[in-house]
Amino acid sequence: MPDKGKVERPFRYIREDFFLARSFRNLDDLNQQLRHWLDTVANPRVHATTRRVVNEAFAEERPTLRSPVGPYRAVLKLERRVSHEGMVSVGGNAYSVPDTARRRVLEVHSLVDEIRILEDGVIIASHIPLEGRGHTRVDPAHRRAAARASRGGADTPVVMSRAGDQVARRSLDFYDAVGRALAVQGNA
Questions:
Q1: Judging by DSSP bridges, how do beta strands 93-96 and 136-137 pair with one another?
Q2: How many CB atoms lie within 10 A of CB 21?
Q3: What value does the mean pLDDT of the chain take?
Q4: Residue 15: φ, ψ to 5°
Q5: Which residue from 136, 161, 156, 126 is spatially nearest to 144, judged by alpha carbons?
Q6: CA 10 to CA 51: how far, in whole Å?
Q7: Are 93 and 135 in contact (CB under 8 A)?
Q8: What are the residue ranges spanned by the domains of the chain?
Q9: Which phi and psi angles does 30 have, rounded to 5°?
Q10: What is the mean pLDDT of residues 92-104?
């Protein structure tokens, strides 16, 4: 396997030989200039290490190259603790977990187009990733068992709220009395 230097050296070559002292009007202009540079400078040159012309070496290797069988599906595997609200955090966003989940720590597979939550190797939840940070995605099906038990019907919508979102209704007289009591305590 090639070392890090060999893998990164072509990028340094492109950065220093192509990008240095160039300007581009837009992406199409950049691509056009890059294609010209590849055809006239980079690929017809004799490679310093192999002592072969780059175009010729690639032409020899091309028949042995295989095309990919499908799109590359990169997966970031994580472990996440389930919150008391039945959520796991991925990329700064919260995603619901079914109320039936037994474990407090679950495996999460983060793909470009899907968040999969697994328990004992079995997918128990799947979500479309949220953009940005600080957002929440709750699948109503994850909360139905609790809704049926507490409200007696599967059709009743589940409302998720954070602690402190609901405040008891009191008259202004109550708050006036609290303010007077605090003022007396402050003067004592």
A1: parallel
A2: 5
A3: 84
A4: -60, -45
A5: 156
A6: 16
A7: yes
A8: 7-64, 76-151
A9: -60, -50
A10: 92
CA dihedral 135, 141, 143, 144 (to 10 degrees): 160
d(CA 116, CA 125): 6
Within 13 A of 64's CA, how many CA atoms are on the CB side? 5
Tell me how far apart the 2 most distant CA atoms of the chain are, in Å.
93
How far apart are the C-alpha atoms of 33 and 52, rounded to whole Å? Answer: 24
- Residue 69: pLDDT over 90: no
Rounded to whole angstroms, the Cα distance separating 146 from 97 reads 13
The distance of Cα 54 from the centroid of its chain, to the nearest Å, equals: 38
Percent of the chain surpassing pLDDT 70: 85
Count Cβ atoms below 10 Å from residue 117 Cβ, excluding itself. Answer: 24
Sorting pLDDT into bands at 50, 70 and 90, what band is 150? low
CA–CA gap between residue 69 and residue 37 (Å, rounded): 31
- CA separation for the pair 37, 29 (Å, rounded): 12
36-63 pLDDT, tens per residue? 999 999 999 999 888 999 999 999 999 9
Q: What is the DSSP letter of 10?
A: H
Q: Which residue has the tokens 């003067």?
A: 187
Amino acid, single-letter form, for residue 3: D
Measure CA 31 to chain center. Answer: 29
